[in-house]
């Protein structure tokens, strides 16, 4: 069992998005990643997709998710279920910060652009290894 203190985790900033990976490979998980993100008013994630299932739990604020050619509103107290490979984008349409918890069915969870290439986010692990290849250094195990 591990208890992870969120205050001691690395905080990454990207154009109005504050990100912390609160559980993942660095904490001993091999098939699950959990992210906490805060989007400032007017901020949007870049259009992207993941190779795994994703659930976004909305903790505070409200916004719009763009997916499959549709835009749907969401607010605190809801969850967004996103299948693998489906391009999506989250937009904070409110006047306050949008707080999200993202849960991914792979570790590390990687984001890919429309061209299928990794987005290269500041919180990505170093030296991405293609699926099925082992990492040489601990605590990294295998990227699926």
What can you tell me about this protein's structure?
By secondary structure, the chain is an all-beta fold. The chain has a domain at 18-104: Jelly Rolls (Sandwich). It has no helices and 9 strands. The chain has strands at 12-14, 17-23, 33-39, 54-60, 62-67, 70-75, 79-82, 88-92, 98-104. It has a 6-stranded antiparallel β-sheet with strand order 1-2-3-9-4-7, with no helix packed on it. A 3-stranded antiparallel β-sheet has the order 6-5-8, with no helix packed on it. It is globular, with a radius of gyration of 15 Å. The two termini are 23 Å apart. Residues 129-144 have low confidence and may be disordered.
Short description:
The chain is an all-beta fold and 144 residues long.
The radius of gyration is: 15 Å
State the helical fraction: under 10%
Low-confidence stretches: 129-144
Q: Say how many strands there are.
A: 9
Sheet with most strands: strand arrangement = 1-2-3-9-4-7
Rounded mean pLDDT is: 87
Major β-sheet profile:
6 strands, antiparallel
- Series of H and E elements: EEEEEEEEE
Percent of residues in β-strands: 35-45%
Instruction: Compute the separation of the termini in Å.
Output: 23 Å
Q: Which overall shape is indicated by the principal axes computed on the Cα atoms?
A: globular
The second-level CATH architecture of the domain at 18-104 is Sandwich
SSE-based structural type: mainly beta
- Number of distinct helices: 0
CATH top level of the domain at 18-104 is: Mainly Beta
Q: Output the CATH topology of the domain at 18-104.
A: Jelly Rolls
The CATH superfamily label of the domain at 18-104 reads Jelly Rolls
């Amino acid at each position: 069992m591990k208890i992870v203190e969120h205050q001691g985790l690395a905080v990454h900033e990207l154009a109005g998005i504050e990100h912390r990976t609160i559980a993942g490979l660095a904490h001993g998980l091999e098939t699950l990643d959990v992210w906490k993100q805060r989007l400032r008013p007017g901020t949007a994630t870049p259009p992207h997709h993941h190779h795994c299932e994703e659930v976004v739990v909305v903790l505070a604020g409200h916004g719009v998710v763009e997916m499959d050619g549709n835009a749907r509103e969401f607010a605190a107290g809801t969850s967004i279920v996103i299948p693998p490979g489906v391009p999506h984008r989250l937009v904070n349409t409110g006047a306050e910060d949008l707080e999200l918890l993202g849960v991914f069915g792979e570790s590390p969870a990687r984001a890919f652009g429309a061209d299928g290439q990794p987005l290269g986010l500041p919180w990505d692990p170093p030296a991405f290894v293609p699926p099925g290849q082992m990492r040489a250094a601990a605590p990294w195990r295998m990227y699926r």
